[in-house]
Amino acid sequence: MEEVILFSSKKEMEKALAQQEVLTIQVGMVKYNMTRVGNEVYVFEQKCPHFDHSLANAKVSPYGKITCLWHNYQFDLQSGEESEERCRSLVTHQAEWTDDGQLMVKL
Ligand code: FES
């Protein structure tokens, strides 16, 4: 498991990542998407577990759910579970604030 620093401060996060916005990041050779709900940031796989549609333009709710725009499957950003268990769960990682104020995620 690799620890990745996403932002060096809360201010930097707020400037770079709007509420419920989805951004694509690259870590080594792997691309991920990330989004923010309140002060929680989630890093998750780039494609939908249902049929590999890109989640880069998926819709994120203020309640921590992400909806793929192809067939509207909805995943919980914390658990990754699809709301009706129609496919496997989304692989998702919740970022954590370190003691020195950086936002870090284990991938
Ligand atoms: S590909 Fe995402 S819901 Fe079908």
Supply the key terms.
107 residues, three-stranded antiparallel beta sheet, 1 helix, 10 strands, 7% helix, binds FE2/S2 (inorganic) cluster
Describe the protein's architecture and organization.
- There is one protein chain.
- By secondary structure, the chain is mainly β.
- The chain has a single domain, classed as Rieske Iron-sulfur Protein (3-layer Sandwich), CATH 2.102.10.10.
- The protein is built from 1 helix and 10 strands.
- The chain has one helix at residues 10-16, and strands at 3-7, 22-27, 30-37, 40-45, 59-60, 65-67, 74-76, 92-94, 96-97, 103-106.
- The strands form 3 sheets. The chain has a 4-stranded antiparallel β-sheet with strand order 2-3-4-8, with no helix packed on it. A 3-stranded antiparallel β-sheet has the order 1-10-9. Strands 5-6-7 form a 3-stranded antiparallel β-sheet, with no helix packed on it.
- The chain starts with a strand and ends with a strand.
- 22% of the residues are buried.
- The mean pLDDT is 97.
- The structure holds FE2/S2 (inorganic) cluster.
- FE2/S2 (inorganic) cluster (FES) binds at residues 48, 50-51, 53, 68, 70-71, 73.
CATH class: Mainly Beta
Q: Class by helix and strand content?
A: mainly beta
Number of domain modules: 1
Separation of the first and last Cα atoms? 6 Å
How would you spell out the order of helices and strands?
A: EHEEEEEEEEE
Tally the beta strands. Answer: 10
| Unreliable sequence segments | none
Average predicted confidence as pLDDT: 97
**CATH-defined superfamily:** Rieske [2Fe-2S] iron-sulphur domain
Query: Would you tell me which CATH topology applies?
Result: Rieske Iron-sulfur Protein
Shape: globular
* Helicity, as a percent range: under 10%
Strand content: 35-45%
Tell me about the biggest sheet?
4 strands, antiparallel
User: Which molecules are bound besides the chains?
Assistant: FE2/S2 (inorganic) cluster
State the CATH architecture.
Answer: 3-layer Sandwich
**What's the helix count?**
1
CA-based gyration radius: 13 Å
